[in-house]
Write a structure and sequence with these properties.
Elements: H1 9-12, H2 26-31, H3 39-52, H4 61-66, H5 74-83, H6 93-98, H7 103-114, H8 118-121, H9 128-140, H10 145-153, H11 157-173, H12 175-187
Helix pairs in contact: 7-9, 7-12, 9-10, 9-11, 10-11, 11-12
Length: about 190
Amino acid sequence: MRTHPWSSYLDYAGYRIKPPDWLTCDVLWQRAKHRDKTAQESYRYDVEEPLKAGMEEIVSFGERMQVAVALGSAAFLERLRRKVRGNRSEQPALRTWQRLLPFERVKEAVAEVKDEAWEQFCDRRLDWGRDVAICLGRRHCGMTLPELGVAVGCMSAAATAKAARRMETRLVHDRVLSRLVRRMEADLSIVQI
């Protein structure tokens, strides 16, 4: 961010002596306040600390086009996650964005619709709850089959794939279950195109 010549970050963070007249910095500076720091230092801290905590700053233009990093409140990130669309095989960064929806929320949504605790039905034979969670996790959480298998209770990747395929087929024919899944997706703020 510091090396990009067209970025206003240099002005907001106080790296340039005087921002251009057309750039309004006061609003950001008023919101970024930390004890014993100037407004610019506070803003710089709010932006750079998450980067230092694990997100790498991307320098080259090509890398910026392949990976998306967003900083903001949980509500802001949730709004972004809901708007992300595309084909995961054509857009590798899409899986990263989809991972913003935690699988725990999917399990909670399924449990709420079933009106049962996850633990009560996740191992029940011929129960659709676990397979719907797998299907939704695959569609909307960006999880791999092995990750989903572990998340639902130590299933192999092959068994998880079979459960996902079986549920996708069932959703084509079972209108009642299909409506329930659409309701869960709405509760999870997932809008289908």
